[in-house]
Amino acid sequence: MQIYIKFFISPQIIINKIKHPYLALRFQNSEVRILSFLLSFLSLVLLFSLNSCRKPIKFSSENLTFSVDTLVFDTVFTTVGSTTQSFKFYNPSNSPIKIDEIELVGGSSSPFRINVDGVKGPKVGETEMEGKDSLFVFVEVTLAVNNGTLPMVVEDRIRFRTNGKDQYVQLAVWGQDAYFHRNDINSGTWPNDKPHVIYGYAGIDSAETLNIIAGTHIFLHKNSLIYNYKGTLNILGTKDNKVTMQGDRLESFYDDVQGQYYGIYMQEARPSVIEHLEQKNGIAGLHLFSRDPNFTDYTVTIRHSEFYNNSRYGLFVYSGARLKAENSISHSNALHALLLLEGGGVHFNYCNLLSYGATSQTPAVGLSNYFFNQATGDLNIGEITESTFTNSIIYGAQATELVLDTLDFQGQKLWTFDFDNCVISKEANITGDYYKNMIWNNDPLFSDPFSRNFNVLSNSPILNSANQLYYLPLDFKETTRDAAASDIGFLEFP
Question: Which of 16, 165, 305, 493 lies at a C-alpha separation of 20 to 30 Å from 154?
Fold first, then answer.
């Protein structure tokens, strides 16, 4: 459609022909009004013309396609929300498509929540999509407490109505009730029929005892910890029924994410025991601070346990605490498998202290009798009362995996070291009173240490090389060791 607008007589020509000033002014004002009227009229004509020329949109009669038919969430604890998952729906046609309605079938009472391309549910009205276009649907879920001990399956679905046809995407989540701890004080024995989820801290107070028995699963929220203040904490797993400890996000994305919570923190703790514990993905797996001088035994004795993938330390002994470990492993931590700082005591027999891992860039073991506080300028010196490593492996991907850093105090050597029959990675072989029967820089030949496979090849130097003087009859898995010629490290091999 074409539009022609033409002035047959110019208004200015008429004005020029009117000589009387007053009449000319009146006519000029009339011209302004005429022009204003003409512009308004022209706008209306154009609007009408465009509307009359627009062809009606022809929507596709096809239906949608989807990236998934079922969106499944891993186990989610009651009252703890999930991460956001998403899927896409597509317009397969070249033409636009009109979606009449998108609805979460369970409505506002559903534990699921949806967001369609920025519009929150549970119901989203008419939506148009261009040809070959796609949109995201984001889904979250939070489950209510059901006071059950067994996992439950909760389901819902999202309905898409297009061209008179309903299509559905199923939603499913495995839910689990739990015992929740939020800055509480604990004693006695935790039941193991449901997981324990910790917010803030689960505390053990002075002179109290908490026993965590076999088969207990512990999940900690961000920055949370088990805090033992001058009490006793006994973690008592078995080879077939370990105690496990990890973050509370159970989606597969979090399987190997470090730093999801703090760990176990013991301050001046009474003698405690940890057996058959699998701890992962924290900041410091086990942190011992100082010790109660009324007790001469080790602060903690660890057996058959594993600490790994922490964002700082697997084991951290600070300011006088004492740790004994047998048949255990600390590995794949971002900083140290073991750090002893400002004095204390450690004793390791048949253990692996390893720095393999994508984020491991510091020595596996660091031993120091002092700590310099850069913030305050204070230098604190303690005494390393014991530092014994026998039949153990200190190794990793770096040239040096053992660092000793000590200071004298008023002319006194406040440390003692004893390494006997260990495999250690060190830039230079070291001789001296501290070291006996050492195997320096001889790769243990783990099968695939970066994938956490610490089995060894048939020509490994650790095989049949342990000192039987320190013999322990059972290894990490409680396999019987060769009484005549056992293997160095936490595992005994056939």
Answer: 165
Asked whether 328 and 301 are in contact (CB, 8 A), the reply is: no
Distance in angstroms (rounded) separating the CA atoms of residues 336 and 396: 11
What contacts 155, CB < 8 A, 6 or more positions away?
170, 171, 172, 173
| C-alpha distance from residue 442 to each of 138, 454, 459, 460, 462 (Å) | 52, 15, 11, 9, 9
- Domain assignment present for 216: yes
Domain count of the chain?
A: 3
Burial (0-12, 13-18, 19+ Cβ within 10 Å), 51: exposed
- Torsions phi, psi for 154 (to 5 deg): -115, 135
> How far, in Å, CA of 380 to CA of 290, rounded?
13
What's the length of the chain?
494
Instruction: Please tell me the distance from the alpha carbon of residue 429 to that of residue 439, in angstroms, as a whole number.
Output: 9
484 lies in a domain? no
**Bridge partner residues of 210 (DSSP):** 188, 233
Residues 6+ apart with CB under 8 A from 378: 372
Proportion of the chain in helix, strand, coil states, percent, rounded to 5: 10, 45, 45
For residue 122, cis peptide bond before it (omega within 30 degrees of 0): yes
Looking at the structure, tell me whether residues 313 and 423 fall in a common domain. yes
380 dihedral zone (left: phi>0; alpha: psi -120 to 50; beta): beta
* Chain segment 431-490, per-residue pLDDT in tens: 678 899 999 999 999 999 999 999 999 999 999 999 999 999 999 999 999 999 999 999
In this structure, the answer to whether residues 295 and 218 fall within a common structural domain is yes
Mean pLDDT for 73-93 is 90
Full-model pTM: 0.79
Helix (H, G, I), strand (E, B) or coil at 326: strand
- Residue 30 structural domain: 11-53
Cβ atoms of 258 and 287 within 8 Å: the answer is no
Q: 262 with 180, same domain?
A: yes
The H or E element containing residue 381 is strand 378-381
